[in-house]
Amino acid sequence: VYKRQPIVPETFSKIIERYKEVKQRHFSKSKYQHFQNFIKSSNSKILLNTGHEHVSVSMDEIVLCTAEGNYTKFELQNGKSLLVSHILKHYNDLLHYRGFFRASRSCLINTSHITSIYKKETIVMSNGEKVHVSTRNRGNLNELIDSLS
Q1: Is the pLDDT of residue 66 over 90?
Q2: Which residues of 52-69 are buried (b: 16+ CB within 10 A; e: fewer)?
Q3: pLDDT tens for each residue of 84-132
Q4: What pLDDT is attached to residue 67?
Q5: The pLDDT of residue 34 is above 70
Q6: Which of 8, 53, 66, 139 ranks highest by number of CB atoms within 10 Å?
Q7: Cβ(112)–Cβ(125) under 8 Å?
Q8: The pLDDT of residue 52
Q9: What is the DSSP-derived secondary structure letter of residue 45?
Q10: pLDDT category, 71, cuts 50, 70, 90?
């Protein structure tokens, strides 16, 4: 038979303080920011399968990605575009942690190519393209604005 021991306030207080200390050490904001920078800088290239070849593209060159049925169209900084044989969700999962934002079901943008945001519903990209943010993703856009401001 298991007997419960009473909680000693001093011991409980020490346990809580130790938890706070460990939590602070593991989850500090500066560590989080360093981690984000590491993710954005590491593996700065991606191989895109265009069907007959794999093209190496720098993450910085990608302005936006749009859904084209079962394919994804990559718009690059130099004005070129590549049609690749994966759905947009595949690239959203891959690029989400590398500074990309899902504006709508059919569009994924590179946040480093944002020129301006108009009325929290339209994003103007560096190539002049205007991307409408879906109603569902406007809350995420507000979080993005806060994180970039």
Answers
A1: yes
A2: eeeeebebebbbbbbbee
A3: 988 999 888 888 878 888 999 999 999 889 888 888 788 899 888 999 9
A4: 95
A5: no
A6: 66
A7: no
A8: 86
A9: E
A10: very high
Question: What SS3 state is found at 42?
Answer: coil
Q: Tokens in use for 9?
A: 């306030």
Residue with tokens 């590549």: 82
**End-to-end Cα separation, the chain, in angstroms:** 59
Predicted confidence band of residue 149 (pLDDT cuts 50, 70, 90): low
Given a contact cutoff of 8 angstroms between Cβ atoms, the answer to whether 122 and 131 are in contact is: yes
Residue/partner pairs of 92-100 with CB below 8 Å, 24 or more apart: 94/46, 95/46, 95/59, 95/62, 95/65, 97/39, 98/39, 98/40, 98/43, 98/59, 99/40, 99/59, 100/62, 100/65
Q: DSSP string of 57-117?
A: EEGGGEEEEEEETTEEEEEETTS-EEEESS-HHHHHHHHGGGTEEEEETTEEEEGGGEEEE
Amino acid in the structure at residue 46: I
Evaluate the CA torsion angle 124, 128, 134, 135 in order and state its sign: positive
Query: What distance in Å separates the CA atoms of residue 72 and residue 4, rounded to the nearest whole number?
Result: 60
